[in-house]
Amino acid sequence: MLSTLLLLLKISTIAILILAALLVFVLLLVLGTPIRYKASGAYHKELKAEGRITWLLHFLSLRCTYDKDLNISFRILGFSLFQTDSRETEELKEKMDIMADQVWYDNQKEDESDREVSEGYQREEISPPEWEEVKPAKEKQENTIKKKKKSSPQKKFSLEKAWKQIQCRVQSLFQKMEEGKAFYERVRGFIENPANQKMFRRAWRMVRHILPRKILGDITFGFEDPATTGKALALLGLAWSWYGDNLKVTPVFDENVLEGELRLQGRVIPGVLLFWGILILMNQEIRRLLLRRGRKMDGGKENGGK
Q1: Is 125 helix (H, G, I), strand (E, B) or coil?
Q2: What is the pLDDT of residue 155?
Q3: Which helix (H) or strand (E) covers residue 75, if one does?
Q4: Strand-pair partners of 226
Q5: φ/ψ bin of 58: left (φ > 0), alpha (ψ from -120 to 50), beta (otherwise)
Q6: What pLDDT was estimated at residue 204?
Q7: What are phi and psi of 158, to 5 degrees?
Q8: CA atoms of 263 and 42, how far apart (whole Å)
Q9: Most confident segment among 2-11, 261-270, 275-284, 295-304
């Protein structure tokens, strides 16, 4: 009897260990396998673009192409689950147009038959009654003037009311200025706090992990206003610091121009995003902000429900 119980315990523990190992393997596979993405595009008076996202050696794949029409395809193990084709959409549009024309033709026929019936009933004309008495024009004018005088009483101008309105407006203006100053101080304190600076560094690492690792491009752009072109060029200087000479930009300072080609690729590991996200949520200030936001949302729902 004991031997059978021990045997059952052994089998159950082995089964539990195997299931736990499978769960850990699946978890590591999901969190450790990178999601890869590629994109390329060209704009020469017309936009042409293509993008692809793959995961687990093309176990899941999403592809988007744009060449005058947008096409999207989603596949699992090579089998398409969702796909849009421009030809199918054009055929559906043609069928819908034919059906709409047919319905409009039927409605027009019904309207014509209704008009014929209504014309048969409206042949006899009814003469207006002649027993109404018409008031003279002078009496009507006097009555309208009296009504206007009664409906619009004269408003007396008072200096006290005007002074009170000015005081209220000045007080509201000072209150708004104080609220803006308090908000600025809160934001400044939040940014200058050394604990929050660690959180900003972690968030920046999280963003850098998502950004593409390789970029190849040749872009020509410009605006009629040279100052606008200079500002855009200063923003693109950040990309140069990351990707070096792989990104070539040619500015034009006296003409509206936009053309070029761009290719990029990168990868995102879900486990890394989860790790940095947990570290960011461990910050006390972030948790306080989330709790305040949740309380405000709950209070708004309760007030709305009431």
Answers
A1: coil
A2: 45
A3: strand 70-76
A4: none
A5: left
A6: 87
A7: -125, 135
A8: 9
A9: 261-270
